[in-house]
Amino acid sequence: MKIISYAKVNIFLKIVGTRNNYHELISRFVIVKNLFDTIEFKKKESNNKTFNLIGNFSCQTKSNTIYKAYKALLNYTKEKRIEEFFETHDVVVNKHIPEFAGLGGGSSNAASFLLLTNKVLSLGLDKETLSSIGSSIGADVSFFIYETNSANVSGIGEIVEEFKEESIDIETFTPKIACDTTKVYQQFRKEYLSQIEPKLAEELLPLSSRDILANYDSITLNDLFAPSLDLEPKLKEYQKDSWFFSGSGSSFFRIR
Length: 256
Prior knowledge:
Elements: E1 2-19, E2 22-43, E3 53-54, H1 65-77, H2 80-88, E4 89-94, H3 105-120, H4 127-135, H5 141-145, E5 150-155, E6 159-162, E7 170-173, H6 181-191, H7 198-204, H8 209-215, H9 218-221, H10 225-231, E8 244-245, E9 252-255
Parallel strand pairs: 3-4
Antiparallel strand pairs: 1-2, 2-4, 2-5, 5-6, 7-9, 8-9
Helix pairs in contact: 1-3, 6-10
């Protein structure tokens, strides 16, 4: 069985506060229908019983969000049959979403793995439970668990409210620049935390994604753009009219 693991963009991303080492945000997430990975489980051809992840990743398996999702699911359910299933099946990922790009590829993969495992093994876990498991892996995982095309996301990413709007065709561009999300947030907290505008975030929530992009610029919409520029000045070369910055970067997007 195969599942599609979509990319996302942040139409806007506003930091509205902090919670210990985390940042509280208000954001609009929108699925990118034309950019996705696929994940499937295939019977192993070898007798190696260790968790095996096949795909073009830049990290070791134990650092991968899919493996973290596997361990989190095991820890929550205590289901021996999950472990037994992946002793005899490979996790095969056909990668197309760029890494370190602000498109949520890692979070999407983790969510898709949880959804597919829940279905294949008939675990019977509802989306709230899967979201709770996923939130321990990454802030964006919950959005992908709920499988909505568009949503307002708040808290530290765990509050997902579907936003019903007309589907939009999104084009993405990712320069060969890898933005470190942790460092971007650290730079934001150091240089920009005092400038947060919760009021603007609240004003954006009821607006359609098209209206937001038509009336605001990329720096205003994404609080992580300025700190990303601080850390990766070459991003300035790709800042063009009608293109917007997604997440902590380095991807830009526009409506086609």
